Amino acid sequence: MDPTLIQKLGDELYDALRARSAVDPLTSRHEGITIADAYGVQQRMIARRLDAGERIVGKKIGVTSRAVMNMLGVFQPDFGYLLDRMIAGEGESIDSGTLIQPKAEGEIAFILKRDLMGPGIGNADVLAATECVMPCFEIVDSRIRDWKIKIADTVADNASCGVFVLGDSAVDPRRIDLSTCGMVLEKNGEVIATGAGAAALGSPVNAVAWLANTLGALGIGLKAGEVILSGALAAMFPAKAGDSFRVSIGGLGGCSVRFH
């Protein structure tokens, strides 16, 4: 894809973010767009956000669970960047008007104490580099109209990042089996989904290793102090004003978020 078009599409998605408006899928308008092209669009969108004063605080892995893959029709993981303006406080009420078409998903977040630079990163390396893990919500949001996305659409759109919320506790990942820990997700006081750590590529640790190695091949590292969102443990659920969500993860604690 022509670099000028890549830049133009990145600007279009940035403008959609600022205007809180959706655009038609890139894949429906540019049939030949590749995943490499889409990451180029993502880089342009992120550059625009950095130029506007935001800063990178971490990275996320998307489309790791079978439930989300089936929901979106996207069958491989992707990654995106977390920025400081995406942070919301635990239990805080989020203004739904600041988002376009949000959906909530329960995840496990890793807080790094050392850099991770692939390739060659294994699970032991991930655990050694992790300060703690926390329950969290990712509120995904798409600038692509009606979530009509293919893999190149969500990649270009920074892996559909919206807002993230870290939970009420921090745990040493070496003290818990992250593949078997169970998750319960509640919406407005009712259980709507259950899951386990194994939903994220067999283990959230596998997911972070995949991310470190995938980014490492591009010359990008995971940095000490960064937040790494390791992927949904169940399906994602639409959120609107008046909704409240809580996720509880065995051995980790909980996280809650409300919308107004």
Q: Which key terms come to mind for this protein?
A:
single chain, 260 residues, alpha+beta, Fumarylacetoacetate hydrolase, domain 2, eight-stranded mixed β-sheet, five-stranded mixed β-sheet, 7 helices, 28% strand, globular
Q: What does this entry show, briefly?
A:
This protein is α+β, with helices and mostly antiparallel strands. It has 7 helices and 13 strands. The termini are far apart.
Q: How many extended strands?
A: 13
Strand percentage lies at 25-35%
Distance from N terminus to C terminus (CA atoms, Å) equals 41 Å
The CATH first-level class comes to Alpha Beta
Order of helices and strands: HHHEHEEEEHEHEEEHEEEE
**CATH fold label:** Fumarylacetoacetate hydrolase, domain 2
CATH-scheme architecture:
Alpha-Beta Complex
The low-pLDDT segments are none
Average of pLDDT: 94
Number of domains: 1
Topology record:
Blueprint: H1 3-19, H2 26-29, H3 35-51, E1 56-62, H4 66-72, E2 78-83, E3 87-88, E4 93-94, E5 103-112, H5 123-129, E6 130-140, H6 151-156, E7 163-166, E8 182-187, E9 190-196, H7 204-216, E10 227-229, E11 237-238, E12 244-249, E13 253-259
Parallel strand pairs: 1-10, 3-7, 4-13
Antiparallel strand pairs: 1-2, 5-6, 5-10, 5-11, 6-7, 8-9, 8-12, 12-13
Characterization of this structure:
The chain has 260 residues and is of the alpha+beta class. The protein has helices at 3-19, 26-29, 35-51, 66-72, 123-129, 151-156, 204-216, and strands spanning 56-62, 78-83, 87-88, 93-94, 103-112, 130-140, 163-166, 182-187, 190-196, 227-229, 237-238, 244-249, 253-259. The strands form 2 sheets. Strands 1, 2, 3, 5, 6, 7, 10 and 11 form an 8-stranded mixed sheet that branches. It has a 5-stranded mixed sheet with strand order 4-13-12-8-9, with no helix packed on it. Helix 1 packs across helix 3 (35-51) and helix 5 (123-129) crosses helix 7. The longest helix has 17 residues, at 3-19. It is globular. The model has no long low-confidence stretch (mean pLDDT 94).
